[in-house]
Design a protein that fits this description.
With about 425 residues, the protein is mostly helical. It is built from 19 helices and no strands. Helix 3 crosses helix 12, helix 4 packs parallel to helix 11 and helix 8 packs across helix 12. The longest helix has about 40 residues.
């Protein structure tokens, strides 16, 4: 074989090897892209609770109770993960959203009840987001009577005109400021021995104030809209039972990460505010827990994160609520449609944005108390949605072999029973305040 022929043969071999290498690289990239395409719903949904109401609730827990409620984070991590995973699994198996399944399996009456609970719960959270916008703007020196109407009009315009995605990432990055609580928690030098003890030693009290705080924590952590969101996101991403393992991992990783952030918020506020006897009554008070990190700029740092998180949630919540209710009751939906084509859908969205903004501008409304009250409402309404989810996920006609196992069912029903019992106890203590004294 001539030298030229040898070179040609060697060249062809190299080309074939290169082609195989390219195919392997493409396959690897496709695998990575498939993983990244599936990853997300669980992480986003679980961390959605760290919005204006969530931050206010967790900061108040640390400021009012120190480390004594840290033990709650262990069972609530399990409960949140289980509930989120059930909804994600239903989305992957059925290819349908939660509202769709409720309408198909339970009929109009049960659907109307669940959707009413969802409307009330999400309406309360929307109000809390506009309260967060008001509080953040006031820390920047802008009155709420200017910032809230402008924010409401901007949110309505961005969503309805379809340009919201352009600024969504900006709001998301701004909300990442709350990761500063992790650094602040270490810089505050908490008593780590006390932290460890309170993580495993429950403190239980039957007085109304304790139950109020407990239910607020549950309501903001396992919020009804999060279950609707995670199932719809799984459906939209086209997740199937075959590739569901990645989504299950995403749900649990997201849950642990979200509760980890809560853990550090409670520790940082306990180490800085509880030790000084400061009760959180305003956003400025809550910002003090970031002082070990930001010093004199703590308020501005907190305001930036609060504004971003509140704008993000105030945009998504009314929209997801309008989609869910319209989907469940069979009405036309879509932001690209006119009011004549989809009056219920756009009416619900506009109504929630308008009410949220109007309530947030009410004079003399105590910010922190109002935010906590919204989370308590969530906690009280949560059992209605949990019962519907459990009935659906155990329905073999729609789930086939993917229904809950015995251990999973015990944990899920126990969560539902405990949340329901807490709700009843709270109502009893409000009616009869001296019953457990």
């Amino acid at each position: 074989m001539s030298a030229r022929a040898t070179v040609r043969v060697a060249g062809r071999r190299l080309l074939r090897r290169g082609a195989r290498g390219v195919r392997r690289t493409v396959a690897q990239r496709r695998g990575l892209l498939a993983y990244l395409a599936i990853l997300g719903p669980g992480m986003i949904a679980a961390n959605a609770g760290n919005d204006a109401g969530g931050i206010a609730t967790f900061a108040s827990v640390g400021a009012d109770y120190g480390y004594r409620l840290l033990w709650v984070l262990i069972p609530i991590t399990i409960a949140l993960g289980i509930v989120q995973e059930m909804c994600a699994r239903m989305g992957a198996v059925t290819g349908k959203g939660l509202a769709d399944l409720i309408r198909e399996r339970f009929g109009v009456r049960w659907t109307a009840l669940v959707m009413l609970a969802l409307l009330i719960a999400n309406g309360g959270i929307t109000v809390s987001e506009f309260l967060g916008i008001a509080a953040a703007s006031e820390l920047f020196g802008v009155p709420r009577y200017i910032s809230v109407p402008l924010a409401a009009m901007l949110i309505w315009w961005l969503v309805v005109k379809g340009s919201y995605k352009r600024v969504e990432r900006v709001f998301l990055v701004m909300s990442l400021v709350f990761l500063g609580y992790i650094v602040s928690a270490f810089m505050a030098r908490p008593a780590w021995g006390d932290v460890a003890i309170n993580m495993v030693r429950p403190h239980i009290s039957m007085n109304a104030a304790y139950l109020y705080t407990f239910i607020a924590v549950v309501g903001t952590t396992i919020s009804p809209y999060m279950q609707v969101f995670v199932q719809s996101s799984v459906v939209e991403k086209g997740v199937t039972p075959e590739d569901y393992a990645l989504t299950r991992a995403d749900v649990w990783v997201g849950t642990v990460f979200a509760i980890l952030i809560v853990f550090f918020i409670v520790i940082s506020t306990a180490a800085t505010l509880y030790t000084q006897g400061i009760h959180i009554e305003s956003a400025a008070d809550a910002a003090q827990a970031l002082k070990p990190l930001a010093g004199p700029y703590a308020e501005l740092l907190f305001a930036t994160g609060l504004f971003g998180a509140s704008m993000l949630a105030a945009s998504v919540l009314p929209l997801s609520t309008a989609y869910s209710i319209s989907e469940a009751l069979g009405f036309e939906k879509g932001v690209s449609r006119s009011f004549r084509e989809a009056p219920i859908f756009l009416g619900i969205f506009t109504f929630l944005v308008a009410v949220g903004a109007l309530v947030a501008m009410m004079p003399g409304l105590p910010l922190i108390d109002a935010l906590l009250n919204m989370q308590v409402v969530n906690g009280l309404l949560l059992p209605i949605l949990l019962i519907a989810i459990l009935r659906l996920v155990n329905d073999r006609e729609i789930m086939g072999a993917h229904t809950n196992g015995i251990v999973y069912n015990i944990a899920a029903w126990l969560t539902t029973v405990i949340v329901s019992a807490l709700s009843i106890l709270f109502i009893v203590t409000k009616i009869f305040p001296n019953i457990f004294r």
